[in-house]
Amino acid sequence: MLRPRPTPEQPERQRILMAAAIVLDRTRHRSLKVRQVLSLAEVSAHVFYRHFPARTDLMLALLDDASHEAVASIEAAIAAERTSADRLAAWVRRCTAMAFDDDGHGHLRLLTDADLLRDSPAEAARLVRRVIPPLEAVLVAGATDGSFATIDPAGDAEALFLHLTGHLGSIRLGLHRRAEHEAAADVLGHARRLLGVPPAEPVAC
């Protein structure tokens, strides 16, 4: 993804965030060096730390933007479907696609940063959990129209989220070798069993 470079007339905080995004893209989201951000944003260390007291604060700001974009993408995919079963499949597909997409949603890889997990684990968890409410809304609608056999949409949404993140995390760590469509099928199959979707009504992945 080709991002625009920050310009001097832009607000300092915006320039820093734009520069950080470019640095992450250049390193394939494997490194975020403050000195590189300072050089690209053309700001001093004093200006940087006035806006972001620590490197983890910058990562959280980037993740906040990325999580909002991710949720908007998920909600759009859900809204494009007509049935509850297809909306469930859309949620699984979009979440799986973002885990495999190092270009469009690569900033989400910051969630595995050791410093972030050490210094701000609760805040990082809050950001990634933003994908749960759209799923819960799908399950509520599905329970109402009889598509899903769930009496606890909130609990089932939580369980599916944990299964998704655990399964995708093991793939990213190399513990399992699965292509994107295979990973989505794994998660969706688990979801269908949990929610009592009859095998005679297959859901496309």
Secondary structure elements and their pairing?
Elements: H1 12-26, H2 34-41, H3 45-51, H4 55-79, H5 84-100, H6 114-119, H7 121-128, H8 132-145, H9 153-172, H10 180-195
Describe the structure.
- The chain is mainly α.
- Helix content is 66%, strand content 0%.
- It has 10 helices and no strands.
- The protein has helices spanning 12-26, 34-41, 45-51, 55-79, 84-100, 114-119, 121-128, 132-145, 153-172, 180-195.
- Helix 4 (55-79) packs antiparallel against helix 5 and helix 5 packs antiparallel against helix 8.
- It is elongated and about 60 Å long.
Let me know the number of strands.
Answer: 0
Number of helices: 10
Uncertain segments: none
**DSSP strand (E) fraction?**
under 5%
Distance between the termini: 26 Å
Topology as a string of helices (H) and strands (E): HHHHHHHHHH
Q: How many whole angstroms does the radius of gyration measure?
A: 19 Å
Dominant shape: elongated
Mean pLDDT: 88
Oligomer: single chain
Q: Largest sheet, described in full?
A: none
Give the helix/strand class. mainly alpha
Proportion of residues in helical segments: 55-70%
Task: Tell me briefly what this model is.
This protein has about 200 residues and is mainly α. About 65% of the residues lie in helices and about 0% in strands.
Keywords, please?
mainly alpha
